[in-house]
Amino acid sequence: MRKSNKEAAETRRAIVAAAADYIRRTGIAEASLSDVMAAAGLTHGGFYKHFRNREQLIAEALVAAGNASADMLGKVRAEKGRNAALDRYLSPEHRDAGTPTCPMAALGSEAARSSGKTRAAAVAVVEEMIDALAEDRFSGEARGEAMVDYATMIGAMTLARIASGTPLSEEILERARKRLRR
To answer: Taking every annotated instance into account, which residue ranges of this chain make up the domain HTH tetR-type (predicted)?
Structure first.
Protein backbone atom coordinates (compact mmCIF):
# COMPACT_ATOMS: atom_id res chain seq x y z
CA MET A 1 0.00 0.00 0.00
CA ARG A 2 1.39 3.38 -1.02
CA LYS A 3 1.87 6.09 1.62
CA SER A 4 0.18 9.45 1.33
CA ASN A 5 2.34 12.50 0.66
CA LYS A 6 1.87 13.54 4.27
CA GLU A 7 2.99 10.13 5.56
CA ALA A 8 5.98 10.13 3.21
CA ALA A 9 6.99 13.60 4.44
CA GLU A 10 6.67 12.45 8.07
CA THR A 11 8.81 9.40 7.32
CA ARG A 12 11.44 11.56 5.64
CA ARG A 13 11.52 13.92 8.67
CA ALA A 14 11.90 10.90 10.97
CA ILE A 15 14.84 9.60 8.92
CA VAL A 16 16.53 13.03 8.92
CA ALA A 17 16.01 13.38 12.70
CA ALA A 18 17.41 9.90 13.32
CA ALA A 19 20.39 10.64 11.09
CA ALA A 20 21.02 13.97 12.85
CA ASP A 21 21.14 12.21 16.22
CA TYR A 22 23.16 9.30 14.88
CA ILE A 23 25.90 11.36 13.21
CA ARG A 24 26.30 13.59 16.27
CA ARG A 25 26.78 10.47 18.41
CA THR A 26 28.98 8.38 16.11
CA GLY A 27 30.40 10.67 13.43
CA ILE A 28 29.69 11.01 9.74
CA ALA A 29 31.97 8.21 8.57
CA GLU A 30 30.44 5.72 11.01
CA ALA A 31 26.85 6.43 9.97
CA SER A 32 25.87 3.60 7.65
CA LEU A 33 22.53 3.76 5.89
CA SER A 34 21.46 0.52 7.56
CA ASP A 35 22.24 1.88 11.03
CA VAL A 36 20.50 5.21 10.39
CA MET A 37 17.41 3.53 8.97
CA ALA A 38 17.31 1.12 11.91
CA ALA A 39 17.58 4.10 14.29
CA ALA A 40 14.54 5.55 12.50
CA GLY A 41 12.72 2.24 12.95
CA LEU A 42 12.78 1.47 9.23
CA THR A 43 14.48 -0.93 6.88
CA HIS A 44 17.34 -0.03 4.58
CA GLY A 45 15.21 -0.84 1.55
CA GLY A 46 13.03 2.24 1.95
CA PHE A 47 15.92 4.70 1.94
CA TYR A 48 15.96 5.44 -1.78
CA LYS A 49 12.27 6.34 -1.78
CA HIS A 50 13.26 9.44 0.20
CA PHE A 51 16.86 10.31 -0.74
CA ARG A 52 19.08 10.13 -3.81
CA ASN A 53 22.13 9.05 -1.84
CA ARG A 54 23.84 9.03 1.56
CA GLU A 55 25.40 12.47 1.05
CA GLN A 56 21.98 14.07 0.59
CA LEU A 57 20.80 12.54 3.87
CA ILE A 58 23.95 13.57 5.77
CA ALA A 59 23.68 17.13 4.46
CA GLU A 60 20.02 17.36 5.49
CA ALA A 61 20.81 15.83 8.88
CA LEU A 62 23.57 18.39 9.50
CA VAL A 63 21.21 21.23 8.63
CA ALA A 64 18.47 19.81 10.87
CA ALA A 65 20.88 19.46 13.79
CA GLY A 66 22.22 22.96 13.14
CA ASN A 67 18.73 24.44 12.99
CA ALA A 68 17.85 22.89 16.34
CA SER A 69 21.07 24.10 17.96
CA ALA A 70 20.78 27.63 16.53
CA ASP A 71 17.11 27.84 17.52
CA MET A 72 17.95 26.85 21.09
CA LEU A 73 20.83 29.33 21.36
CA GLY A 74 18.87 32.13 19.73
CA LYS A 75 15.90 31.54 22.00
CA VAL A 76 18.03 31.53 25.16
CA ARG A 77 19.87 34.68 23.98
CA ALA A 78 16.57 36.46 23.20
CA GLU A 79 14.90 35.47 26.48
CA LYS A 80 17.76 35.54 28.97
CA GLY A 81 20.64 37.31 27.25
CA ARG A 82 23.94 36.53 25.63
CA ASN A 83 25.67 35.28 28.77
CA ALA A 84 22.90 32.77 29.44
CA ALA A 85 23.30 31.41 25.90
CA LEU A 86 27.06 31.08 26.43
CA ASP A 87 26.54 29.38 29.77
CA ARG A 88 24.08 26.92 28.24
CA TYR A 89 26.43 26.00 25.43
CA LEU A 90 29.56 25.83 27.61
CA SER A 91 27.92 23.70 30.28
CA PRO A 92 28.91 20.32 31.66
CA GLU A 93 25.47 19.05 30.53
CA HIS A 94 26.24 19.91 26.90
CA ARG A 95 29.73 18.42 27.19
CA ASP A 96 28.43 15.17 28.70
CA ALA A 97 25.36 14.70 26.49
CA GLY A 98 25.30 11.35 24.70
CA THR A 99 24.01 13.18 21.65
CA PRO A 100 25.80 16.54 21.52
CA THR A 101 23.56 19.48 20.69
CA CYS A 102 25.94 21.38 18.42
CA PRO A 103 26.81 19.48 15.25
CA MET A 104 29.93 21.55 14.62
CA ALA A 105 31.44 20.79 18.03
CA ALA A 106 30.65 17.12 17.41
CA LEU A 107 31.54 16.91 13.72
CA GLY A 108 33.54 20.01 12.75
CA SER A 109 36.79 18.40 11.68
CA GLU A 110 34.96 15.60 9.93
CA ALA A 111 32.69 18.07 8.11
CA ALA A 112 35.75 20.04 7.03
CA ARG A 113 37.10 16.92 5.31
CA SER A 114 33.79 16.23 3.59
CA SER A 115 32.94 17.32 0.10
CA GLY A 116 30.00 18.59 -1.86
CA LYS A 117 26.65 18.88 -0.15
CA THR A 118 27.94 17.81 3.26
CA ARG A 119 30.52 20.57 3.39
CA ALA A 120 28.04 23.14 2.05
CA ALA A 121 25.57 22.09 4.76
CA ALA A 122 28.26 22.51 7.41
CA VAL A 123 29.00 26.03 6.17
CA ALA A 124 25.28 26.83 6.32
CA VAL A 125 25.17 25.60 9.92
CA VAL A 126 28.14 27.80 10.87
CA GLU A 127 26.40 30.81 9.30
CA GLU A 128 23.19 30.04 11.16
CA MET A 129 24.97 29.65 14.50
CA ILE A 130 26.79 32.95 14.01
CA ASP A 131 23.48 34.64 13.22
CA ALA A 132 21.89 33.09 16.32
CA LEU A 133 24.66 34.51 18.51
CA ALA A 134 24.93 37.95 16.92
CA GLU A 135 23.19 40.73 18.82
CA ASP A 136 22.49 42.41 15.48
CA ARG A 137 23.18 40.06 12.60
CA PHE A 138 23.27 42.96 10.14
CA SER A 139 26.01 44.79 12.00
CA GLY A 140 29.50 43.87 10.83
CA GLU A 141 30.94 44.34 14.32
CA ALA A 142 28.27 42.21 16.02
CA ARG A 143 28.69 39.51 13.38
CA GLY A 144 32.47 39.54 13.88
CA GLU A 145 32.07 39.22 17.64
CA ALA A 146 29.64 36.33 17.15
CA MET A 147 32.17 34.58 14.89
CA VAL A 148 34.87 34.80 17.55
CA ASP A 149 32.41 33.73 20.24
CA TYR A 150 31.29 30.69 18.25
CA ALA A 151 34.84 29.69 17.35
CA THR A 152 35.82 29.92 21.01
CA MET A 153 32.74 27.97 22.07
CA ILE A 154 33.40 25.15 19.60
CA GLY A 155 37.06 24.96 20.53
CA ALA A 156 36.34 24.98 24.25
CA MET A 157 33.63 22.34 23.92
CA THR A 158 35.84 20.11 21.79
CA LEU A 159 38.76 20.36 24.24
CA ALA A 160 36.46 19.87 27.25
CA ARG A 161 35.11 16.68 25.67
CA ILE A 162 38.64 15.42 25.03
CA ALA A 163 39.54 16.07 28.68
CA SER A 164 36.16 14.90 30.03
CA GLY A 165 36.35 13.42 33.50
CA THR A 166 39.37 15.50 34.46
CA PRO A 167 39.72 18.82 36.26
CA LEU A 168 41.11 20.27 33.03
CA SER A 169 37.74 19.78 31.32
CA GLU A 170 35.93 21.84 33.96
CA GLU A 171 38.62 24.51 33.84
CA ILE A 172 38.35 24.82 30.05
CA LEU A 173 34.60 25.39 30.23
CA GLU A 174 34.86 27.86 33.10
CA ARG A 175 37.65 29.91 31.52
CA ALA A 176 35.87 30.04 28.17
CA ARG A 177 32.67 31.26 29.87
CA LYS A 178 34.61 33.94 31.76
CA ARG A 179 36.48 35.07 28.66
CA LEU A 180 33.34 35.39 26.55
CA ARG A 181 31.08 37.11 29.07
CA ARG A 182 30.49 40.82 28.55
So the answer is: 9-69
